[in-house]
Amino acid sequence: MNMIRATLLTGLLAIGLGAANIAAAEENAASAPSGVSQAISHIEQAIIEIAKSDFNAAQVHLKAARTAAETLATNEEQIKKANALVIQGQILAKKGDIEKSTVELNKALKIYRAL
Known about the structure:
By secondary structure, the chain is mostly helical.
């Protein structure tokens, strides 16, 4: 009787752990698009804040966009290019150059949307 219980418990534990691993893998696969959409959302908000000349709020959104993009593991080359453009836009926004900052951030948006 104890042998049957131990076998059933071991089998159920193995099934549970297997299901948890599958769920974790699916969650990781699903998180990539959300990271891109978060980055896009933050960049769009930053462009709006830059247009309003609210550079501090724009900096917060740009940092959040870079953080969201750094978690992605797909198309690392494209993400590096987009992050470089976001950094350029961030530097230009700090200087108060609205037009050039907006151009750089729009370039980054195009790359993120292509992902």
